[in-house]
Amino acid sequence: MWHQKRRAHRLLRRLDVTLPVPLTIPALVATLEEERGRPIQFVAMTVDEPAGPCGLWLATAETDYVLYNRDSSPVLQVQTTLHELMHIALKHTGAAVDDDATPHIECGDADRAVTMLARSSASFDQQQEMDAELLATYLGARLDRVGQVGAFEDLHQDTAAVMYRIAATLTD
């Protein structure tokens, strides 16, 4: 685990943004929006396939969209949104999307998606996916959860204990 913690610290040094204090998702979003000069919007999606993506980052010409599974637990929604935000913060690149291949997702405007990164359990062998997941887990343990859903305390006692142990290993 020490090598993951070291990797997380290296990734944090690569970020071009200063993490807000206290660390909350809204404050992180505001920081990323300011650094990128464009809004980030969250969109709840319904995933029909069990192997479908947990979340997506869609970058259009003017807006970044972070899509998450509306049927996921609040804790997984927070993890998914942090994961996608870390793709943005790390300036990861995705494959260009052709007009014919653009997924039909209602994003609130007519911008065509130009970059898409999908998070699914089958894609964790990719370095970008592993880096985004590592930072999402690392920062998730540091979130100031006041007024936010998804706190470890909302979990079953045994599950919360396991999550605290994992977070403690990464954050010590």
Task: Round the mean pLDDT to the nearest integer and report it.
Answer: 76
* H/I helix tally: 5
* Major sheet size, sense and barrel closure: 4 strands, mixed
The domain count comes to 1
Percent of residues in helical segments?
A: 40-55%
Task: Please identify the structural class as seen in this structure.
Answer: alpha+beta
SSE order, one letter for each helix or strand: HHEEEHEHH
Radius of gyration: 16 Å
The low-confidence parts are 98-112, 147-152
Bulk shape: globular
Architecture overview:
With 172 residues, the protein is α+β, with helices and mostly antiparallel strands. It has one domain. It has helices at residues 2-14, 25-36, 74-89, 127-140, 157-171, and strands at residues 40-45, 55-60, 64-69, 113-119. The protein has a four-stranded mixed β-sheet with strand order 1-3-2-4. Helix 1 (2-14) crosses helix 4, helix 2 runs parallel beside helix 3 (74-89) and helix 3 (74-89) packs across helix 4 (127-140). The longest helix has 16 residues, at 74-89. The chain is globular.
